[in-house]
Specification:
single chain, 312 residues, alpha+beta, Sulfite Oxidase, Chain A, domain 2, five-stranded mixed beta sheet, 13 strands, 21% strand, binds the ligand Nc1nc2c(c(=O)[nH]1)N[C@H]1C(S)=C(S)[C@@H](COP(=O)(O)O)O[C@H]1N2, binds molybdenum atom
Length: 312
């Protein structure tokens, strides 16, 4: 497996998970060497390029980050297969340079951005977020990215824009999973404009201090920590400002199971299973799922007056 190394980053340094933890002085905070995880991580990290100069951004949960090996080998990315281990095996050759993200629709300054220009939009920040999949597992991921709002403000959304729609790459030549009509390709997602502008909503370009591997959505993906993981569209190519609520891949495939809002909500069961608990990858016992995935204080106000059982 080989990914292209971004031209602007020197191939001088390979960062391991252990070095990363040292850098962030996780060792002191956790007071235990057990946190360093196991060896054999070089094989993963060698494929990603170090990102430098990012700063820590709030919030930083007390939860310890999931092992890099788990974050990069237990994935949902249906364009590369339905099994959790398939994306790590089949996405490695995804061509992530050159890469363009087009931002258009109801805005004064629609524009296509080369990835390198996107990286200059706003200072990169690390955001250690709890992530929860609707399937009932969760991780803690140290993302590196920038607020989606930085990008949206640049194109100047018009007053009529109420929603933001995301489309991702759908390239049959590179993505074996597209042969299966499991979803209506390309994968699409959407947010209400105020959700998209919320400071917790980021576009991630890296994790554990390095560029994203293809299986995690390289080169750029959405991260909305209070929503189920499927909101986090991977390998984004198009962002549209629109007036009406957009169709989304999962809502189109199974509307009774996956609503537009998809807020993490322990009180609203999935029709086929409970959402009250979750298994943190790397842990054995289950933990209680928190409303809005633990981010209620920051985001609950976005939904004041809404019946969240109806708008699930
Ligand atoms: N393009 C695309 N994006 C996607 C998916 C997908 O199948 N295709 N799966 C989603 C789901 S269901 C989850 S849980 C997260 C998983 O992200 P991770 O593998 O980086 O943890 O990606 C989301 N983004
Ligand atoms: Mo998911």
């Amino acid at each position: 497996m080989l990914i292209q190394r971004p031209q602007d980053i020197a191939p001088s340094e390979i960062t391991t998970e252990a070095l990363y933890h040292g850098r962030r002085s996780f060792i002191q905070r956790a007071g235990s060497l057990a946190l360093l995880g196991s060896s054999g991580l070089l094989a993963d990290t060698a494929l990603a390029a170090p990102l430098t100069g990012f700063r820590p951004g709030a919030p930083l949960p007390a939860d310890k980050p999931t092992r890099l090996k788990d974050i990069t080998s237990y994935n949902n990315y249906y364009e590369f297969g339905l099994d959790k281990d398939e994306p790590a095996r089949t996405a490695g050759a995804l061509k992530t340079r050159p890469w363009t993200v087009t931002v258009e629709g109801l805005c004064n300054k629609p524009r296509s951005f080369a990835l390198d220009d996107l990286l200059k939009l706003a200072p990169l920040e690390e955001r250690i977020y709890r992530m929860r999949c609707v399937e009932g597992w969760s991780m803690v991921i140290p993302w590196v990215g920038f607020p989606l709002s930085s990008l949206l403000k640049l194109v100047e959304p018009q007053g009529s824009a109420k929603f933001v729609a995301f489309s991702t790459l759908a390239d049959r030549a590179q993505m074996p999973g597209l042969q299966r009509p499991v979803l209506n390709w390309p994968y699409t997602e959407g947010l209400r404009l105020d959700e998209a502008l919320h400071p917790l909503t980021i576009l991630a370009v890296g994790l554990y201090g390095e560029t994203l591997l293809p299986q995690n959505g390289a080169p750029i993906r959405l991260v909305v920590p209070w929503k189920y993981g499927f909101k986090g569209a991977k390998s984004i190519v198009r962002i549209r400002l629109i007036e009406a609520m957009p169709a989304t891949a999962w809502n189109t495939a199974a509307p009774q199971e996956y609503g537009f809002y998809s807020n993490v909500n322990p009180d609203v069961d999935h029709p086929r299973w409970s959402q009250a608990t979750e298994r943190r990858i790397g842990e054995f016992s289950k933990r209680k799922t928190l409303p809005f995935n633990g981010y209620a204080e920051q985001v609950a106000a976005l939904y004041t007056g809404m019946d969240l059982k109806k708008h699930f």
